[in-house]
Design a protein that fits this description.
The structure holds four protein chains of four kinds.
Chain A (H helix, E strand, L loop, with lengths): L1 H20 L23 E3 L14 H5 L5 E7 L5 E9 L8 H5 L5 E3 L14 E2 L1 H4 L30 E4 L8
Antiparallel strand pairs in A: 1-4, 2-3, 3-5
Chain B lengths: L1 H39 L15 H11 L10 H17 L10 E3 L2 E3 L9 H22 L3 H32 L4 H7 L5 H4 L1 H14 L11 H4 L9 H25 L11 H22 L5 H31 L1
Chain C lengths: L2 E4 L2 E4 L6 H7 L23 E6 L4 E4 L10 E3 L3 H14 L17 H9 L10 E3 L9 E3 L9 H9 L6 E3 L6 E3 L13 H5 L5 E3 L12 E2 L2 E2 L8 E7 L2 E7 L12 H5 L14 E2 L2 E2 L2 H19 L4 E4 L6 H14 L4 E2 L4 H13 L7 H5 L3 E5 L3 H4 L1 H12 L3 E6 L10 E4 L5 H10 L7 H16 L3 E6 H19 L7 E5 L5 H8 L5 H9 L5 E5 L3 H4 L3 H8 L4 E6 L4 H5 L2 E4 L8 E4 L4 E5 L9 H4 L21 H8 L6 H6 L21 E2 L23 E7 L6 H4 L12 E4 L1 H7 L6 E6 L2 E9 L7 E6 L13 E8 L4
Parallel strand pairs in C: 1-5, 17-18, 17-24, 19-20, 19-22, 20-21, 22-23, 24-25, 25-26, 30-34, 31-33
Antiparallel strand pairs in C: 1-2, 3-4, 3-5, 7-10, 8-9, 11-13, 12-13, 13-14, 15-16, 15-26, 27-28, 28-29, 30-35, 32-33, 32-35
Helix pairs in contact in C: 2-3, 8-16, 8-22, 9-15, 9-16, 13-15, 17-19
Classes of the chains: A alpha+beta, B mainly alpha, C alpha/beta, D mainly alpha.
Chain lengths: 176, 331, 800, 168
Amino acid sequence: MNLWRDIKGTLQPFWVTLGYLFKKPVTIQYPEEKRTPPPRYRARIVLTCNPDGSERCVACQLCSAACPVNCISMQAAEAADGRRYAAWFRINFSRCIFCGLCTEACPTMAIQTTPDYEICNRDVLKLVHEKEDLLIDGCGKDTEYNFYEHSGIGVVNERGGNEDEYGPVDPKSLLP
Amino acid sequence: MNDLLISLVLILVKLGLILGVVLTMAAYLVLAERKILGRMQLRYGPNRIGPGGMMQPLCDVIKLLTKEDFVPDRADKWIFLFAPGLTALAALLSFAVVPFSPPVTLFGREIPMVVCDLNIGLLYIFGLSSLAVYGVVLGGWASNSKYSLLGALRGLAQLVSYELALGLALVPVVMSAKSFSLNAIVMAQADWPNLLRHPLAFIIFMISITAESKRTPFDMPEAENEIVAGYHTEYSGMRFGLFFVGEYINLVVIGAMTTVFFLGGWHGPFLPPVVWFILKVLFVAFLFIWARGSMPRPRYDQLMHFGWKVLIPLALLNVVLSGAISLAVNS
Amino acid sequence: MPKLTIDNLEVTVPEGTNVLEAACALDIAIPHFCYHEALGAVGSCRLCAMMFTDGPVKGLQMACMVKAQDGMVVSSTHPDAMELREHVIEWAMTNHPHDCPVCDEGGECQLQEMTVAGGHSKRRFRGKKATFTNQDLGPFIQQEMNRCITCYRCVRTYRDYCGGTDYGVLGSRNRIFYGRFQEGKLESPFSGNIIDACPTGVLTSKPFRFKTRLWDLQEAPSICPHCSLGCAIVPGGRYREVQRVRAGINRETNGFFICDRGRFGYDHVNHPERPRQPRIGGQPVALETALDAVRDRIAVLVEAHGPNSIAFLGSSRASLEANALLRDWASAYGSEQLAYEAHQGRDYAARTLAARVGGHACSLGDLRQSDLIILFGADPLAEGPMLAVAIRQAVRGGAKVVTIDPRPVELPCTTLHIPLPASRLPELLAALGSGDLSAFDAQERATFAPLLDQIKAARRPAMVGGADLLGGQGIAALCSAAADLSTASRAVGVMALLGGPNSYGGALLAGDGPGFDTLLDAIQERTVRALVCLESDPFCEALDPARAQAALGHLELLVCIDSTPSLAAQRADIFLPSRANAEMSGSYINNEGRLQEFLPVIDPGLPIKVTGAGDHPPREFFQTTPGSAPAADWWLLAKLLERATILAELRKTMAKYDERFSMLSFLAAGTTGLRLPVKVALPPVADRGLPHADGSDNQTLLATTGPLGSHWLAHLSAPLAATEPQPYVCLHPDFAAALGLASGDRARLTTRFGHCHVEVRLSAQMVSGLVLAPQLWDTALEGLAPGSLHDCRLEKEARA
Amino acid sequence: MTTVLFYILGFILLAATLMCITRRNPVHAVIYLVAGFFALALMFYLLGAPLVAAWEVIVYAGAIMVLFLFIIMMLGLAPQEVPEGPGWQRWLPLVLLSASLMACSLLIILQDPAAGQEIPDFYLAPQALGEALFSRYAMAVEMVSFQLLFATIGAFLLGRPLPKGEDQ
């Protein structure tokens, strides 16, 4: 019967909450108890390096474009060898929502999230991390990839020196 | 003249006592609500300030007092400023007629344990509860914000609608006490409480008083996931605090009213009457907190339908039935 | 008017339209690379394939190569067409380096879009990629040939449309290479257009390299402030810095392209020495203090010496609104000392043009359709570069071009050049108008008589004049000649190259008021004691800077409103910083009377790269942005006049000067603008003529506008610095031989502004007996106001 | 004492009503009207009719004026002008009225008018009222309620949205 169902539906939750009232809470008492997040946890963002130790980031601004809260800003610049790099790179962790979209957008595997979640600070400016705060000495989750070995731009190797390229053509030659 | 002076002093003492107890109760009800809700949701609730979070209300008060008191641009400033006070005041004043213990004889003087035993006490409470709506409505209107206005409109319609059912639910109580005086109503329940005599009235009363006090599940005027914070969206600091305290004083008042009207007031075995009274009030307060932990918010139109199409006819029917029964029993 | 059906939608298009354009008219997006509205269709990219299911043409065809015909039924979503497009994109991508993260085209790359639109997502080709070695194409263009998809757009833009000769296509098969035969700077002054034209990242802007992604760029439709043509541009800025300019589209003026001066001349906004703080007597003060000081001190002077002791100088680069408010301000005091251009030749030219051109005014769009164009004392590459491109389009359509000028006039097309001294140009115009060439000698008559016949025979002739050399009298003669040569069946178009983007607007406001030379006289006589300069620099822009500087020294009060570190800004008693046109809204009226609006791109402020002073932008925070004091010129004037600072309100008050200004309310940025309707009754202009050299024993020097980088705003732009020439003079070979000079010699040029070491260039197109020198800023040649004649001495120097 | 209170309350009532009809802002007018109702309620109390006093507050101040407010807020009738002059001056009347009302209420509570026995049949008992309404004046009460019912139905009929295609 409908009325019976309604009354039951109204009273049942009271019973449930009353039961919960006497159960042990599931809350983890954070500063006293800590948990170890899984390796793929999305917390503090870092900039990783190539296997050869050079910076991975090419300042393509895809992470800042993907960022839904606009917490990443940077300026690209050109090194002497034509390499594009970030002249400055800034993540405002007081804005960051740790969604991880930046890492998905990154074409060079440079920007990665880490399980280090304890970055709270009373001084907001200390949450604004510059490139030197973000750079780590390691490859992070991807230990092989080096963008410039595949990009076709002669930075790591000479032009045409990557494994899937012929050497530079001579447009003035008519030989096949 | 001496007599007048003594009665004045007595009134002031009682006022001070009530004010102190009620405000403390209100403050700790906030904590209690947060802790109980927390446990119902398998959390701890506030537990950081003082032992078991007992100093939390103090911190809240300090925080509210030190926050910026903000008046929105183009708000109707004066109405905006006095509206929260109106809410808190109306709730506090209701206590003037609540008897919390049988009269005590002190120094040969019989002192009624009520500030003012009005013979229209029930109507007085009605009057004040219908005035409490002004705080909500004017505050919401003066904020010059669409959410506040929507909250105020909702609050207004809700309060007006459920006041009818509330009044009708109390008619059997008045009929059996044959008086509007709360003292008389309590006295009339010396043998058994009205809860047993008028169970339907009790249910209607509880539902409509929940709506009247804007508590969950009938917190439409401040439904935070629809209209930010409703009528007090634009309030900050202690003015918000006044709305907040008003709500919890109201909770105490409701507890007291329910106790007086249905739970037999201070009557009870073994324990002193005041203790019985306070225990009953706290139990009712717990019921409200429990309801908040258990019930979802209905839609606004559902609320209106329920009030006008179910509750009021039911209350009318209850009046007729109670009248008939009491006629039959008496004759 | 063929009527065809595309994707079940019917459309009627003009005769000669191709199917791709017809689809565009229906807002059906067809992927394409090689087709471009300005360049036309060549059908080389094979991407716009559509299935012709019914009608005169059937089968899978390239939409850009098929003219729309009646009864065609076309499908852009036919599976065959989609499959072909997908394969074409896949082929185009076989050699692509997949380096989008480090490519500047990212975000506005048509190849990216077409790859996604074409459905190609996974590379199947497992072979190796061909690679190329890039060329250094100079300071403007960065080349990355690996990304090329051989659409030929760059060559068609550079060679065919803009008339460059030093860029082309080399090689064959998959070794096709676009570039110069040898590395080196691209010579065409329109080379930047290949950046816009290239659909991928092969050709990108070098000054903009790695600066900003398109999605981070703040862009807004604007009007180029560099010359009077009023080309549509779209500046882009980020981090409080204007970083690039791309061509806007205005089919009535520039079409789809702009010149390199407009494209790379944005940097004056970010100039490191740009004054950004109000100053009184050289000391920085708050804006309110400066505004009060201006009001108070002018009020004191008016009180003491009457309203005419205050003179006002408007500007051809200030917005129309600001210039109108300046007139309001002058009339508020009752002052009649109001001029709009410090260079009085240009001033009178503009006023004469505004008063007399009438229905003859012709736009660049009209000019592209002309069949005969005669340039009288106009050097498009210096005074209005896009005119040269427009002329080239006319020539490509079969037009003849004649240039009559004392200078050599280089155009990217075949021209007939007739050297003639500037002073004789009005005379020639009068003779052409009347048809009476008797004043000329037989040889000259032999040249000009066929010209007269050609004009009379032409269907759409146009005459172009330059304000610098013609002055007011010359422009008057140009307008009269055009009127006389017009017949009932066809009118002769008139276009004049004026001093600045808003010369025409200033001229409309100036009416028959005094010229700046009159004001100078009054200043010299101490009847004028205060001068208000609105974005103009009388010290440098006046026709006779020496006299101007001497006279201006007498001033008791010099108020300057400017956005550049000009001499007037440095010497002003009270200085108010204004915004550059990329930082504010406003409107200009270009040289054909077209009212156009520009919108702000960025807010003023010191660029982050300056405030950062190093690798990072600053980590402190301020209540206000450093360097954000500059306000729009009209805003400052409205504040001074204590008016509401709302542009729309100010515009409503402007119709009292010219009822045509009521059109301002209908103006929208990014459109073709609004051509002012013809108004006949304009006050006559009293022209005092151009001052000429007295012809003493030395040589005569004709000052002229320099090429790209030597205009004031362009000079302040760092990217153009590389193109700014070293001081040079140009001589006729015969004259040079008489002086004992040869091409490439170093010479010492002495004028009354001092000495200067110059390089000697020779040109047979010069008028003999004349030394031609460009006005070059920050050199001894900076006092040479264009169009003025000076006495000079040229001596050969031994080579260092 | 009672007489003095009566005159004071009378003055407050008149003043509040005057303020009510001169306000341009409808919400402010309502606030003054409510203050007037209070004064009226106190007067009823003074005259020995506490029931009427309570109903005055519940029905008029608590229900009818609230509905007025509802309509005003729903229709957005408040003027959009910026308040003129310093705010406290505009609200001085209300503050004064409220303060004197408060004082009067206190006086009434302290000096229970019943003590003086000035009016013999003091409290108008609910029973007496009920009997008067439903026996002696039953006809009149019924007529009035029917009129109210008709008015309600009429308002509903006039105000309901017309069915499609039906013209006025």
